[in-house]
Amino acid sequence: MASQSSVCIVSCSVLKGELRQLRAEGKLDAELVFVSKNFHVDYTQLESNLRRMLVHTKNRFNGKIVLLYGDLCLGQDGEMEKLAQEHGVVKVDALNCIDCQLGGRGKSLELNPEHNLMFMGPGMIEFFADMKRSLKQQGIDETAIRGLFSGIKGIVLLDTCGGKEKLLNALKEIDISLEVLETKEGGSDNVLRVVLDAVERT
């Protein structure tokens, strides 16, 4: 059945909560297609699944297609932009998912120039919970897992969908021994701005 929306967003599932909320609020009229956030641990696996999803989406959708992934999500050399161009779609102007949640255009780098803060929104908390479970199944202990976060001063919580207490409780369950230094409660509108900017460029 053909989509009634004129825009389709192919996105990392890290941003599923924000996109679904924007659509439910009537702020975003778009079909949503998600690629699992857990592919982020392997560039090759992510690229393979993204290519397949883009081909499938282009074959069945006649409107504008926006790729909601950052510049750095496939590597440091513009791989994601090249992938977007290869498939004739427009990519958002952002470094990564966190950058989208902060408004894009390198805002995350501006707020964290020393790379010693961990920005955690709803999807990223889920990602790290899944990652921790996977590492423990591989026999990696708590001490080694916490060592992955050495050099990080603390967490900036991104309450993009409402429900700060739920996010704090989820962080406690992950238990990566990092303090929440600040909470940003900007809602999902930063993600909306990044998406609408890309739609205008299609």
The pLDDT mean sits at 93
By secondary-structure content and strand pairing, the structural class works out as alpha/beta
Helical segment count: 9
Main beta-sheet annotation? 4 strands, parallel
Helix content: 40-55%
Overall radius of gyration? 17 Å
Low-confidence stretches: none
Widest beta sheet: strand line-up = 2-1-3-4
Run of helices and strands: EHEHEHEHHEHHEHEH
Strand content: 15-25%
Oligomer type? single chain
Which of globular, elongated, flat, extended, rod-shaped describes the shape? Answer: globular
Task: Please report the total strand number as a whole number.
Answer: 7
Distance between the termini: 24 Å
Task: Write a concise keyword list for the protein shown above.
7 strands; 4-stranded parallel beta sheet; 46% helix; alpha/beta; 9 helices
Overview of the structural elements:
The two termini are about 25 Å apart. The chain is about 45% helix and about 15% strand. The relative contact order is 0.17. It is α/β, with parallel strands linked by helices. Helix 8 links the parallel strand 6 (about 155-160) and strand 7. It is built from 9 helices and 7 strands. Strands 2-1-3-4 form a 4-stranded parallel β-sheet, with helices on both faces. Strands 5-6-7 form a 3-stranded parallel β-sheet. The mean pLDDT is about 95. Helix 6 runs parallel beside helix 8.
